Amino acid sequence: MIAELADLTATHPYRDSFWVLYLTALAAHGRANEALTAYDQLRGMLAEELGADPSPELQELHLSILRGEHGARRNHPALPSALTTFVGREGAIADLQAALVDHRLVTILGPGGAGKTRLAVETARAALDRFEDVWLTELAPVTGSDGILQAILSAMGLLEVSVLDRPSTAPRPDERTRLIDAVHDVEGLLLLDNCEHLVGAVAGIAEDVLAHAPKLRILATSREPLRIIGEFAYQLSPLTMPHPGSTVDEAMGHSAIQLFVLRAQAVDQSFELTAETMPAVLEICERLDGQPLAIELAAARLRTLTAPQVAARLSDRFRLLTGGSRTALPRHRTLRAVVEWSWDLLEDAERDLAERLAVFPGGVTVESAAAVSVAGDRTEELLESLADKSLLVPVRGETPRFRMLETLRENGVERLVERGTAEAVREAHLRYFLDVAEREGARLRGGDQVAAVQAMDLEQANIMAALRFAIDREDHVCAARLVAALAWYWSIRSQHVEACTWADAVLALPGEADPASEICIQALSLTGILVMANQDRNTEPAWQGPVDRILELWDTHRPEHQVVDLVLATMSFFDVIGDRELRVVEDRWTRSMISFMRIVLLDNEGRIGETVHLLGPIVQDFRELGDRWGLAMSLSQQGMVQSLRGDFQEALASWEEAVPLLRELGAAEDADITRMQATGLRVSLVRDDQLDEVERDLRASIAEAAREGNRRAELMARMNLAHLEHCKGDDESAIQGLEYVLQHADVTASFGSGQMEAAIRASLAVYRSSAGDRDAARAELTEAAIVGLRTRDMPIISHVASASASLAHREGDDETAARILGASEAIRGMADLMNRDIRALRLALRASLGEERFEQLHGEGRSLGRDDAIALALPDTASSGGSSTE
User: pTM higher than 0.90 for the full model?
Assistant: First the structure.
């Protein structure tokens, strides 16, 4: 751009407008010295040749550069680097910056192609120094309201791969909670681009987020207002046009003409705005209503046409507008005319391919374009041609990829409908992405997992569009296969609600797919019933229908599929398959995953002692298979078992190996959880002379997490800090820390959760008892028991039972404390040698009761059955609020 402006000043040395642009551009790019040198050369030339000084505008610009008012701006990682110059919206940027001071929601309104997105980005770029964080969310590829939160989280870097140990024992925040946690106290600017196709849902999300994030500002772009209280609607005006009779220099002072000239010179370096070309340029810009996209498309045609030829063809294309006032027509008609005109200028093969590519909301590659193209070997050539003609935007990445502008895509779909080919093209799109989903879905279960996750991420918008199309046309077979292919991806992503929702949508369609896909979607639906509805397995149940249907399909077809084998093995664990004999699984990955799932389920049932010798071979299997997810999950479980047994260094080694695997997968949440477990173990083992050092490290971690907006990591560090403060004897600070965590963690919103709340309340009961507030401790313990029983999670219930033993000891009833301590081990299936309070309690009870009496009482509790152990350990009032643990 600077080189272009330098050429313009050399060719037209007396035109102030060119010099203003040139000097401003130099200064804005950090080249102020060059700008000052160029100004001195201009001043000398004017004095020598004309006996004149630079204009007042240039003199003022010279002074502003000397004052350093045009320094280079930094780029924010969330904002795309500009590939072209930004023309004619300086006043709009100033208006929007002022609006963002007084209003928390500002919406830029205008038709498609008006430059809303570019203006929003440049406004944000100009305000970088004011905001701690700026995030750009592109909503154009999002085809349904269910994808909005995912798009925002993805823009923030919070759409995570996460390891699923077990749905019922691994509570994690939902997407809304993760978003609010990330922005609730950040001085940030959230850009929501292209809201019009989701305006109602976007309005609801914006209102919710603003209500929970008092420092946040939202800058949205849309064709219509969001219409919520407090919104400042900024109507974007067209680029400015000169008055009739203006000179060439006067015309170049207007943004519409500047934009056309700059873009025209990008494709034809010989083009100049002269007295001869200006009438055609003025006609083009005026007839296009000063809309930036339309002007750029018109300028691009100067590669093969003259400006008068472009103006003449444009007139032919706008015959629909000659019968009345343009302003009386719907605003999008102007852009529609421009798009249709640019479409008609394409060759037949280019036009046909462009229309077909309009069904790709998530971008297109050469391979995916070929799936819908009828151009054969010319497809790649035509893609490049469409990109050259501004119909496609190249997307940088390892694989060449192209994106069609939203308005162009919309026009292409309409043309497909008009030609009667939309159904066939969407069918080809569906078939292609069904193949992609099934291919990548299979690769998720093995050594190609990371690459497969990345591929699924890249094509997610296209795959989901294909799924919606299949459901809309009631294609049960393809929809079921897509959901089955996505099932493992959704599990890795912890998108359990989405998986169950789509499974139910497919099950509502008429027809039937292949047995393996049917079993998979029935299992997903069953998961939703059991976990989301928190339904007891031993009641007459909504789950009986899916179970019966799965068994019927199995009895009739016995399909061979890895996920089917996992489903049947899990059902066998819960003893709902009757006397059926499952086939012997030969596939190593499936055997390992079935074994691991059994370990997780045994742990959840309070039978962790049965798993001690099983984990090592499974870890080795996943290591040799190259499955990072399986390896990370098994290492995490192994670390837990090792920590309970007292093998502390081995536990730390397992967790520390798991963390980089999780980071590689992008599993930030599970990496944080695993790191919290490791830190918690270190706190539990800390020596008195290390307390202050560990506290400093934890406070530094809290501060760092807060600066990064990572609410989850911050709260986890606060939990460990509270434990450390309790170890130091500062129970009041520990209580305040855990109360803060409870207040700021939405523990009830997680999928089938309650575990975190029960664990925190159990710790609070211990800390309150240690602080001398027995009544508050008992009340906290009762609440922990109610919540814990509702989860039916034996590790959590055992943790609550251990707190109950601690309270009994502090109340002076050591015999009861010894029995309850034994009962807690019966519930868990193993003694907990990691918990510092339990270790201290065990020593105290041995000292007060004597070794023999302690062992007798402890053994009485340890020998109880699970239900009797729970009845002994938990407060009587808990049973009224809990649910069966069977």
Answer: no
